[in-house]
Amino acid sequence: MLDAIQKVEERIQRACARSGRSRNEVTLVAVSKTFPAESIKKAYEAGLRIFGESRAQEFKSKVIGLPDDIEWHFIGHLQSNKIKYVLPHVHLLHSIDSLALAEAASRYAQKHGLSVSVLMEINTSGEKAKYGFSPQEAADAFLKMNDMQGIVLKGFMTIAPFVSDEKKIRASFQLLRRIKEEVSRFTAPENTAELSMGMSADFETAIEEGSTIVRVGTAIFGSREVQ
Asked: Strands 116-121 and 151-157, how do they pair?
């Protein structure tokens, strides 16, 4: 696993160099969803501290028994009735994909005295199977969410289309960056600081287009079994 992590790190560094960016501008989230706690321990021993999960109950079970200094990110679709499994433990919730979910998270956070950092998920590819706000509704929805108590907006997340055409992938990332630039005119800089975009197959392109968080699973842990 150490070798895989080093290769990912080298790819990140090369992408940063190509785009004239500093390596410390990009956070690597090791996506450990579906992999056992033992795999996370190995990655932890290899030096990683930031891990991403996407299933609420699996996430809850993994938090118990793993080192306290792990920074947990939740990157998958979250149902409102499973907020209780995630919000108490998460450093950053990447996937606020509706106002209803934002409102539910706000209510829970206020009730339990939490301040939860979140990203707004945008469906930049327009694929019906994907969650997220449409680009057209992003600005208005962002401003509504920004007024909610208990949650703190930190930026945006997207998933590029699963295609081989790099132009379409790059266009998806470029669109999210433009949304960030539009919304940043109406809010504090820290509310739009993060762009979570890029996974194992496309994180180098994402970095070139301004990503500040890349979510890398397969390139670190290997292929997942079909669940």
From this structure: parallel
Find, among 143, 174, 141, 147, the residue nearest to 160 by Cα: 174
Residue 225: the pLDDT is: 60
What mean pLDDT is reported for the chain?
Answer: 96
Give the pLDDT of residue 204.
Answer: 98
**Mean pLDDT value across residues 97-107:** 98
Which amino acid appears at position 191 of this protein?
Answer: N
Question: 101 phi and psi, to 5 degrees?
Answer: -70, -40
Q: Which residue has the tokens 């992938």?
A: 169
Q: Give a three-class secondary structure readout of 130-176.
A: CCCECHHHHHHHHHHHHCCCCEEEEEEECCCCCCCCHHHHHHHHHHH
pLDDT given at position 161: 94
Say if residues 105 and 83 touch (Cβ distance below 8 Å).
Answer: yes
Alpha-carbon distance of 225 to 96, in angstroms, equals 27
Dihedral sign of CA atoms 142, 148, 153, 156 in order: negative
H or E stretch covering 177:
helix 166-183
pTM: 0.96
Structural domains for the chain: 2-221 (3.20.20.10)
What is the pLDDT averaged over residues 56-80?
A: 96
CB-side neighbour CA atoms (13 Å) of 21: 20
